[in-house]
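We treat protein structure as text, and this decision shapes the records that our systems exchange. Because each token names a local backbone shape, the row as a whole describes the fold. For reference, a complete record is included directly beneath this paragraph.
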Amino acid sequence: MISRLVFPGLLPSLVSLTLDHVTLSAAELTLTAPLEHQVVQRSSPGKGLLRIAGELSEEVPGKDLAIEARLVGEKDATGWQRAGGSIVGKKLSATVEAPAGGWWTLEVRVTREGKELAAGRVGKVGVGEVFVVAGQSNSANFGEEKLTPQTGLVASFDGKTWRPAEDPQPGASGDGGSFVPPLGDELARKLGVPIGFVSCGIGGTSVREWLPRGATFPNPPTIESRVEKRPDGLWMSKGDAYQAFLSRMKALGPRGFRAVLWHQGESDANQKDPTRTLPGDLYRKYLETIIRESRREIGWEVPWFVAQASYHVPGDEGSDDIRAAQASLARDGIALAGPDSDALKGDLRERNGQGVHFSGKGLRQHGLKWAEAILPWIERQWIEPRTVAGGTEWSDFAQLPASHAIGWVGANVSTRDTKSWNGVLDEAKWGTPSPDQVVSRNWDWKISDEAWAAAVKEKGEGPREEVRFDLWLPEGLAVVKGMVVMSGHGSGESLFSRADLRALAAELGLGLFKFTGNPMQRGFWPRSLLLDRLRDFGARSGHAEIGNAPLFLYGHSNGTGFSAVFPSYEPERVWGWVSMRPGITFQVYQPGAVQVPGLVIFGEEDSFLARPSREENLAVVPALRKKHGALWNIAVEPKTGHGPGEKTWPLVFSFLRHTFAARVPADADPRKGPVKLKTPAPESGYLGENWDSAKGGYQELTIAPFAGFSGDPGTASWLVNAAYAADWQAFQREGEVTTR
């Protein structure tokens, strides 16, 4: 039952959302997802995606409605963040990233132009680990003692509602105890997140009863209610157990749980009527069918853990045939090895060791054995190398504080420099700036690691956020000659996985490295934060030379706070960098990076280009060209906004390729130490006429060798060589590179 609240401040029993009681607006919104005690499967060690759904009592007219959410715990809370989604008619749907852990109270509000129209909450939502439990009685509430979780962080789902995971588990057939509470407690203690279970077990079932409808077998199980005999003498499954199992998995959504925990086999092993016993080879065949078909029908490769389960009573303590069949699934990579439950005997079984089901002591031990199988595997999920797209990929995660990010540094570390801004100041739009405004517009901060550390000591490091790191190396690469390093902000996330970039990396002998998370993806201090990670990944991948390899940097929007700022601190490590649609062009103002070739790509219709004005943003690179001789160029992509498109990437890749050839010696070997990069003489390059903002659109821009350029050589774009100059010119003329 869903209850409604009159005031958002009251403690809710489940979910309620009402319009601001001060404005007395008429509409109400009731949330239907997530549910109280719901555990959402995390997608990384530190976060998961919450799906929010609800319904308004009446349609809310007008545009510019925003859905915002935050999570409040006993000790901390997230800030309000925009939830991606929409309100269509009376229906609200949205998604928002949530930190792992719990229990959280989810607060949701609907706003227009910053004014709150509605607010409400749902209590006890968790982001953690979710498991589906299936099989026969020892997975289905037939234990001798009913157990209760002790951590308060274990919940169960019956297909409609979530609740604390007290035995008997909802959705399973028995009314006794289970291994779920002790397993959930152990996982919650070790992982530090809530644990959810979806129990589907049915007592006494053979693997034959779990087959899809119509699957045939030569002999029936002991219980025949879920199978039927065909006229040709074969038996087949009615598919009822299989369909119920599928529906429970589908209700959790794609990748909505971690794994299936399968405990079954006793009803196929050593039956009193030998004609009901299932040979091991058929057990293997049928369970493999269930695994493969269920994966196909739910649409993803869900992992399975298969326990060793064939024990009956003392004197009948296991079937070598069934055990071998269960073990073969793990050996052949179809499933993962669960616990050896046959080894749990004596007083771990009911009736002082005389029964097939577990005693209370046995249930607790059984739960710990499941945890022993699951925990190391979960830890490996985050860091185990994977074969991906003709190469190998490694990942890692870290909880890093806000003090690493450019926004925190700008707010908390003084540059003591109010006079060195050299860009164009649009007085008509900005007026006369105060000294503080000048500092905020001057990103040439020259902040030392010592100054940063002192600010952190004084101000505190700020809240922590998960950062994900990914490395991809081409298959068969003997020596990593360079690294393309991307901020994952904006388009950097998808760029990392592009097939054309990976093909170029394989051709040139490069690795790809990406980080996602504000403490790094929007610029960071100290610079060793990146260099240390590269060394760590070099050790993990067996390519220690990554720690010495030269770098090419990419940042989109606020990711420019990485790609433009880092070369000013480490110009000797970077052979080139790209700022894609800078969110704040003044981040590019980095005199310390002028000898590192740079490309700044604007979108003509990008709203950020017009803030404060096109002229001011487009003047930053020419200002650095004129005053410092920066080896940089501007490209403006006509008729495009803030995001790059398919026609943008060939220019980026051309710049990468040609700057690599110009700066990285052909015989460079980072295995021997840091690579000494070549610095091109300005006269060796080409110059290009800058895009005219007044004309707009596609433009035929003049290019010429440095000495033969007829325009102003001090402000023109510097282009590394004739081939890149031709690509750059075609991009400005036609919106795409046509000379490849």
